[in-house]
Amino acid sequence: MRELMPRWDGKLAIGVATVALITVFALVVPLLAQDPRSSANPALLPPGPGHWLGTTKLGNDVLAQLAVGTRGSLFVGVLGGLVSLVLALFFGILAGYIGGVVDEVLMLLTNINLVIPGLPLVMVIAAYVQNAPGLGSLARSSLMVALVLGVTGWAGSAVVLRAQARSLRTREYVAAARVAGEGTLRIICVEILPNLVPLIAAQLIYGVIFTVLGEAGLSYLGLGPTGSITLGTMLNDAQTGQAVGTGAWWWFVPPGTIIAALGAGLSLVNFALDEVVDPRLRQAPQAVRRQRRSRAAITREEASA
Amino acid sequence: MTPVDGVLSASHLVKTFRLRSGLRSTPVHAVKNVSFEVVRGRTVALVGESGSGKSTIARILAKLETPTSGQVLLDGVPTPTRGRALAEYRRRVQMVFQDPFASLNPFHSVAHHVERPVRIHHPELTSAQVAARVRDLLDRVQLSPADRFASRRPHELSGGQRQRVAIARALAPGAQYVVADEPVSMLDVSIRLGVLNLLADLQREQHLGVLYITHDLATARHFSDELLVMYRGDVVERGPADDVILRPQHPYTQALREAAADPERLGALRDEVRRSLRPLGQERSASA
Amino acid sequence: MIVERAAEPDLTVQPVLTVEDVSIRYEVDPPVDAVRGVSFTLHRGEILGLAGESGCGKTTLAYGITRLLKPPAVMTGGRVVLHGRAGRDAGGDQDDDEATTDVVALTGEELRRFRWDRVSIVFQGSMNSLNPVMTVRDQLHDVFTTHRPGMRRRVREQRCRELLELVGVDPARLASFPHQLSGGMRQRVMIAMALALDPQVMVMDEPTTALDVVVQRSIIREIMVLRERLGFAVIFITHDLPLLIEISDRIAVMRDGEVVELGTAEQIYRAPQADYTKQLLASFPSLSGTRGGFVRGREEVLGA
């Protein structure tokens, strides 16, 4: 079991710490800070006591907005990541395990999804959904944005998972399970999936990063959720409020920083997971270090002899 | 003589794969019309080199492949390809795979591998009965104390121990026939005989019918009653093991026999090579 | 315990490679001593068999002798000496400086020249290391353009054809790509490449294990013919002791990084001294001996 866990090293520690800090910030600070929509404060105050990160043009507290926005972005990110993971698992594992015509059809759909340029598609779908009648308040909610991003972002992961499932399918232990009398579903769930856990986790994190960035992009373009605050909507507000022109850096730098830090932190965790999926990634540098060390030891011995 | 109370037979098996390259596909005749019988309590060896079709036959008997034509019969009855009847077939016919490093799931414990077939084929057993049966199976393949091995994972075992787990798994449903596809070729030489002897013991004790698939003439001879030699999808020679090995008739069997290392021919190859080169050697020493 | 015995008197006792007290360690956690104080002498034109099971250090030793060790493996001690070719006519070849060489001390250009020029290697998977997008001709020519830059193209082509003929491959195959050749043919091409520069020593690590027995047989016969004609010495590494007994002059049996017994093939077969040698010999049922003896005689055979 231990070989399925990432090794605890500097990269992973920094990644986990960054993501954890941001998550705690998003969960705890909204409870303590003032209402992010309250415009009772003076407009465009620079950071200072009372308003640690200043205020916006509308007099909203930036810290409060940042905390609630981070929570919103994380919500969209995790939800979108999960949606795309479920789709990737369905398309990838099924295509990879069953093969034949099923594989051809599922992969055709995956490839179509893969070659359509991502952001324009998301924009079209988001714009369409928002104007679709009968969706009501759901139309421009963060839930819908997460769904749209999830539905468009699974294809890459599906290809990766399919390749791995295909290779696992031909393993002798899968054949052995069939001979033992196991059913197809049980073979996929019990014999194949556990060996895919690190890869699946990596794909989930990749999906979360994709969704967080995608949501920021959509919101910045004005296609984001209207009812809720996210990091993307903050940037959009800062843009329309001409924060750059008026030098109100405290309005756009914090959300930008959090997006960058979240992306970086999740990527660092993913690197550690990649090393579990492909141990060569970490064995080669380790081996070089060891050899250098032992060479040094031998030279010392020779020198003292 | 032991009474003949069961027979697994392959009847006119043919397997043709289609090798696709681009739009064209060329047929590959892996198995061409092969028939034989495995009687309970006896071992049939299927000898051949890679590409001879012997592993395809193993996979057809284990119902991992369907033959292009021909049938697998159990006690003379054609065998099913799906459903409950297939489960019944699997209970009686099991397989031991070549590579014990690949045939055990690295994620699962030894107990899982042996327990699952017991549960699948004997759903009426209680958990305690299943556990007792698993212990008994592990003991029987000489993995004792069973409790110490049950919780281990494949990577904590040696190659020989893994193959013993694979044998226990094959016996777990209460199998009457075992298809052993090169069961020792991936193991270290000094433990091969141990595993083969274990199979031979179990076969005697449990009156198993064994199809032993190998490329090694020597073990095929020592561990089987009947021997079939396969070459490019065809059985080219068959008969009692000793007859086939000691008095091979077919040119291919003779070539196999000739090619197998035999320490009794110590130095013979070198002397033969020297003799055949002598004229050339003299030339060289003359010119030097 | 090393059971060392005098070599047969009729061997041409002119050493070509001396391995003295070589130790190799894998610097992993904890460190693994893969080869521990191994010594032997390889004589000119001799086939020395190196027998042992997986993990006994035989392949590591081969890598050590040819200076191919990669981290985390490190040679922690010992000497490997390649002796000069006495009385060799130097005409034609550029490297007439074939003096006695301390292999461990070689670096850079010298090391490159030592490998392939003087000691060549064929591994089990060698046949898969041919470049799939280059013809056999280009790859064989490459050996000469790299190691014999002065050689004329016509001479090179001539040598390549000779080499393929030597190993029993139709020279017309020079134009083929590796995937157009069978496994046996590719391994023969690798042997041709190893022979290209007329080395003194060939290290062969399970050169035929991946091949079918009939092909294996013809390649081994080819190696023995070439050895007689060209006079190189061979270190032949395999787990297949019966094969070694059949073809080797002397055999070293390795276990846990040490040579437990070294003797002529006949001594090893007829009167093995070390228990491990006996155990290894007993692991191979005889093709023509009494049938079924192994099924029942297990306890005494394995002693476990």
From TrEMBL, chain A:
Keywords: Cell membrane, Membrane, Transmembrane, Transmembrane helix, Transport. One of its GO terms (cellular component) is plasma membrane. GO terms for molecular function: dipeptide transmembrane transporter activity. The chain crosses the membrane at residues 12-33, 74-98, 105-129, 141-161, 192-213, 249-273. InterPro entries: BP-dependent_transpt_permease, MetI-like, MetI-like_sf. It is a multi-pass membrane protein. Pfam families: BPD_transp_1 (PF00528). CDD domains: TM_PBP2 (cd06261). It is found in: Cell membrane. Residues 70-270 form the ABC transmembrane type-1 domain. Gene3D superfamilies: MetI-like (1.10.3720.10). Belongs to the binding-protein-dependent transport system permease family. This is Peptide/nickel transport system permease protein. It comes from Quadrisphaera granulorum.
From TrEMBL, chain B:
SMART domains: AAA (SM00382). SUPFAM superfamilies: P-loop containing nucleoside triphosphate hydrolases. Keywords: ATP-binding, Nucleotide-binding, Transport. Pfam families: ABC_tran (PF00005). It comes from the Bacteria. The keyword Hydrolase does not apply. The keyword Nucleotide-binding applies. GO terms for molecular function: ATP binding; ATP hydrolysis activity. InterPro entries: AAA+_ATPase, ABC_transp_ATP-bind, ABC_transporter-like_ATP-bd, ABC_transporter-like_CS, P-loop_NTPase. Residues 8-257 form the ABC transporter domain. GO terms for biological process: transmembrane transport. This is Peptide/nickel transport system ATP-binding protein. It comes from Quadrisphaera granulorum.
Automatic annotation (TrEMBL), chain C:
Coiled coil: none annotated. One of its GO terms (cellular component) is plasma membrane. Signal peptide: none annotated. SMART domains: AAA. It is a peripheral membrane protein. It is found in: Cell membrane. Keywords: ATP-binding, Cell inner membrane, Cell membrane, Membrane, Nucleotide-binding, Translocase, Transport. Residues 17-281 form the ABC transporter domain. Pfam families: ABC_tran. GO terms for molecular function: ATP binding; ATP hydrolysis activity. Its main location: membrane. InterPro entries: AAA+_ATPase, ABC_Ni/Peptide_Import, ABC_transporter-like_ATP-bd, ABC_transporter-like_CS, P-loop_NTPase. It comes from the Bacteria. Belongs to the ABC transporter superfamily. PANTHER family: ATPASE AAA-TYPE CORE DOMAIN-CONTAINING PROTEIN, OLIGOPEPTIDE TRANSPORT ATP-BINDING PROTEIN APPD. This is Peptide/nickel transport system ATP-binding protein. It comes from Quadrisphaera granulorum.
